């Protein structure tokens, strides 16, 4: 089974994987995005927002072109072979071992259960349609590509409502043509866009004072990537704030218990009856035991 996850051939082994140490282009992208953000939210950005008039058809066309560009790169660039082989292997092995037996098997698996549901769906499509490995490589990249577009759309809607239509267009175009996002999702096959999209939705919900929904979404994020712990202090403050508010305490407890039960069920489906509690903690400690849960 361990060999099944690592599908890389001798040819792919000889290829040098993309370097994560090229900080120059990455920092340049960050600086440009930050500059565009300050322009879009500043005085001149508001004047720009009042002067720009773009039709809905043009916006839809921009999103379609961005999708086609990402799809072209996804086809032409194989991606980071190690992670891509894991994703493709997990998508297949989830169906071979079942949800409850996936983490029981003896192979490398260092991702929490939430994204495994996405791979379970993709693996099901592969089994149903007999999708070849080359096409599956592109399909594995699709969730991150779609989340790229989702981030741009949310940036457009949020900026349009709070700043202006022109700023919304500027923010969305910035994300659509961002080399950093394109490389990470379309070329490297990483799922950082999935994590970022959920995180942005959490903070928008907090901005709208929908704290219970934000906390529920954070629990889902915690089951997606361990980096969700970075905003754990913020969510702890949210929980304390809601508990202290006496007039909504009962509603918060009811919603908290309901949403917690729903999210925890996503976790329990990957836990067999023989496994002791604490699967998520063991996954997050995979570095200490070589990825075996």
Radius of gyration: 21 Å
Major sheet? none
Helix and strand pattern: HHHHHHHHHHHHHHH
| Number of separate strands | 0
Termini separation: 14 Å
List the helices and strands and how they pair.
Blueprint: H1 2-5, H2 10-14, H3 23-41, H4 43-51, H5 56-76, H6 81-97, H7 113-129, H8 133-162, H9 165-176, H10 179-187, H11 192-207, H12 211-222, H13 232-244, H14 249-268, H15 279-284
Describe this structure in words.
The chain is an all-alpha fold and about 290 residues long. The chain has helices at about 1-5, 10-15, 25-40, 45-50, 55-75, 80-95, 115-130, 135-160, 165-175, 180-185, 190-205, 210-220, 230-245, 250-270, 280-285.
Keywords:
mainly alpha, 293 residues, 15 helices
Short note summarizing the structure:
This protein is an all-alpha fold. It has 15 helices and no strands.
């Amino acid at each position: 089974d361990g060999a099944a996850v690592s599908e890389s051939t001798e040819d792919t082994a000889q290829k040098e994987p993309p370097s994560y140490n090229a900080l120059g282009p990455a920092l340049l992208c960050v600086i440009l995005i930050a500059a565009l953000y300050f322009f879009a939210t500043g005085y001149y950005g508001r004047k720009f927002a009042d002067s720009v008039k773009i039709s809905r058809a043009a916006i839809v066309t921009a999103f379609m072109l961005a999708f086609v560009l990402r799809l072209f790169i996804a086809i032409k660039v194989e991606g980071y072979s190690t992670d891509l082989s894991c994703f493709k292997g997990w998508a297949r092995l989830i169906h071979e071992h079942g949800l409850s037996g996936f983490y029981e098997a003896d192979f490398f698996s260092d991702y929490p259960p939430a994204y495994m549901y996405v791979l379970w769906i993709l693996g099901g499509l592969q089994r149903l349609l007999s999708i070849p490995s080359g096409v599956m490589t592109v399909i594995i990249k699709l969730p991150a590509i779609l989340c790229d577009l989702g981030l741009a759309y949310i940036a457009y809607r949020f900026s349009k409502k709070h700043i202006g239509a022109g700023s919304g267009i500027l923010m969305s175009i910035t994300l659509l043509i961002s080399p950093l996002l394109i490389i990470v999702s379309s070329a490297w096959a990483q799922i950082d866009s999935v994590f970022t999209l959920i995180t942005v939705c959490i903070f928008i919900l907090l901005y709208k004072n929908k704290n219970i929904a934000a906390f529920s979404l954070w629990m889902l994020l915690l089951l997606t990537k361990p980096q969700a712990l970075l905003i754990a202090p913020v969510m702890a403050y949210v929980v304390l704030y809601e508990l202290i508010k006496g007039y909504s305490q009962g509603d918060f407890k009811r919603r908290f218990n309901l949403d917690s039960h729903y999210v925890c069920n996503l976790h329990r489906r990957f836990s067999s009856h023989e496994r002791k509690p604490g699967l998520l903690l063991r996954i997050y400690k995979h570095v200490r035991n070589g990825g075996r849960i």
